[in-house]
Design brief:
- By secondary structure, this protein is mainly α.
- 81% of the residues lie in helices and 0% in strands.
- The chain starts with a helix and ends with a helix.
């Protein structure tokens, strides 16, 4: 009986430690990814290139323009770190990497990327992403 109690306590403690590591690990990783990507885009000048691409493409521009009228108080997240955490949890790092590779190779179009994200994220989450993108591009 003592052995079972001891084993149960060990399992509970290990479960709590595992949950803590997962929770804080995902939070730390999402903050690190968001900061790294933002700084790399700004330092390399790709942020201006992205902004020009959006400005010159009416479909992308209308997609991002929806963020102007969005009510930020009703969005599920408002920071890029929170957005990264949600995307990592719902889409996964390996799937994001696959999408990035396919886009770079030209085997995936922007419509396919949007469709893929709409299938994995809710409408509110997509709107929150649009708001964050809009704020980042037009600070």
């Amino acid at each position: 009986m003592r052995f079972i109690k001891f084993l149960l306590v060990i399992v509970i403690v290990l479960g709590a430690i595992g949950y803590g590591v997962y929770h804080f690990g995902v939070k730390y990783a999402s903050e690190k990814v968001a900061d790294t990507i933002s700084s790399e885009l700004e330092e390399s000048g790709q942020m201006d290139e992205i902004k020009n691409t959006i400005e010159n493409d009416p479909q992308l521009k209308s997609f991002v323009e929806e963020a102007k009228t969005a009510d930020s108080s009703k969005l599920p997240f408002t920071t890029k770190e929170e957005a990264t955490k949600v995307i990592i949890q719902k889409v996964g790092i390996s799937e994001l990497n696959n999408i990035r590779t396919k886009v770079q190779n030209g085997s995936m179009t922007k419509e396919q990327v949007i469709q893929e994200m709409e299938g994995k994220l809710t409408d509110e989450e997509i709107l929150a992403l649009k708001v964050i993108v809009y704020k980042e591009l037009y600070k």
